[in-house]
Design goal:
single chain; 281 residues; alpha/beta; 9 helices
């Protein structure tokens, strides 16, 4: 399994120092939060994008993709009732595809709960159609640039629009492109009624990225979630993307988060387990 870590965990660190720490810990890739570089990706020059890509490569790390893509932006909303706001968001999603591809990334995670909540008086069906319309141009751009956009189902405590993997898959299938998939996130799956391994099995092959964290908002191995059955399910379905560490509680410090998380994940994946006949690692 390939392991990545999200760069916003290293709060206020220089990107070069983040890369060095991630490589030393044993990660294979970095996942970028664009807001750690600028409020808008359109403000990040071509030269800066090359520097980001080359800095990671110098230390043997890939850039797997980007997430938190609408964080700290203003005037953007996936399913807003105002056509001009949806159009502006659609245009920015295309810019995100370009930023991702320019830095060497291949995955865009779209969570953004505050930019997709149902607005007063708007039905879920109408919001669904508007969101699909907003994504369309960026999906076409993603196909052209070898990027996959992944919609993230989130817990009801975070948003009231697309809360389960099954709903996210239904939305993705409506888009009808291999460049539009979903992402599975352990913390988010903890809010579903189904066991996480079952969600993984039922979601394959519709998910193209995986976030590792715990119900307690910390890293894998920092809480009660047992990753052994999660690893077994990912192996069973033949998942070959990254398992990327994303946390929301930074209180343990970036180096402790990075080192303990990957230490736990490698311990889990190195543990012997029996796969069903015909499944592949």
């Amino acid at each position: 399994m390939k392991f990545a870590i999200c760069n916003e965990i290293f709060q206020n660190w220089k990107f070069a120092d983040t890369v060095v720490a991630a490589a030393r810990a044993g990660y294979d890739a970095i996942e970028l939060a664009p807001f750690t570089f600028a409020h808008y990706v359109t403000d990040i020059s071509a030269a800066e994008r090359r520097t980001i890509r080359d800095t990671a490569a110098t230390h043997g790390l890939a850039i797997c993709g980007i997430h938190w893509v609408l964080a700290r932006t203003d005037g953007l909303y996936l399913n807003h009732s105002a056509p001009e706001i949806r159009a502006r968001t659609a245009e920015y999603l295309c810019a995100l595809v370009d930023f991702c591809a320019d830095t060497g990334g291949r995955i865009i995670v779209v969570g953004s709960p505050k930019q997709r909540n149902l607005l007063p008086g708007i039905s879920a069906a109408q919001a669904w159609d508007w969101a699909a319309e907003t994504f369309q141009n960026s999906v076409n751009r993603a196909a052209a640039r070898g990027v996959t956009i992944c919609l993230e189902p989130l817990a009801p405590a975070e948003t009231d629009f697309i809360n389960t993997a099954a709903d996210a898959i239904r939305f993705a299938r409506q888009i009808g492109s291999p460049h539009f998939k979903i992402i599975l996130d352990v913390k988010a799956m903890c809010s579903e009624a189904k066991p996480i391994p079952q969600i993984i099995r039922e979601s394959a092959p519709e998910f193209a990225h995986f976030h590792a964290n715990d119900r307690n908002l910390k890293g894998p191995g920092f809480g009660e979630v047992d990753f052994h059955p999660i690893a077994a399910a990912l192996d069973e379905v033949g998942y070959d993307g990254y398992v990327s560490v994303e946390v929301f509680d930074f209180s343990d410090g970036p180096e402790a988060i990075a080192n303990r998380s990957i230490g736990y994940l490698k311990q889990v994946w190195n543990a012997p387990r029996h796969l069903p006949r015909g499944a592949r690692r």
